[in-house]
Amino acid sequence: MNSQGLLTPNEVADRLTIPRQTLLSWAKEGRIPSIRLSRKTVRFLVTDVDQFILQMSSRSPVNTPATV
What is the pLDDT of residues 26-66, one digit of tens each? Predict the structure, then answer.
């Protein structure tokens, strides 16, 4: 991480334990905020990644049966 609080795609993918390509697809779809520095360079704000993790952890699991 650099002094501006930006993370590389590899750093974020490691934090989220997902493939780098999945992360880049999510960024392209707008599922996670990103900053495009050039045609080939994408970075992520630490604060945006932390917020994304909080949002993902607050969602209820999709594949669990509902209790009545």
Answer: 999 999 999 999 999 999 999 999 999 999 988 756 665 55
Helix or strand holding residue 49 (H, E) = helix 46-58
| Element containing residue 50 per DSSP (H, E) | helix 46-58
The yes or no reply on domain 6-58 and CATH 1.10.1660.10 is yes
- Reported pTM: 0.79
Neighbours of 33 (CB within 10 A): 13
Per-residue pLDDT, 58: 87
At 42, which helix (H) or strand (E)?
A: strand 42-45
Token pair 């999945």 is found at 22
Provide the residue ranges of all domains of the chain, joining segments of one domain with +: 6-58
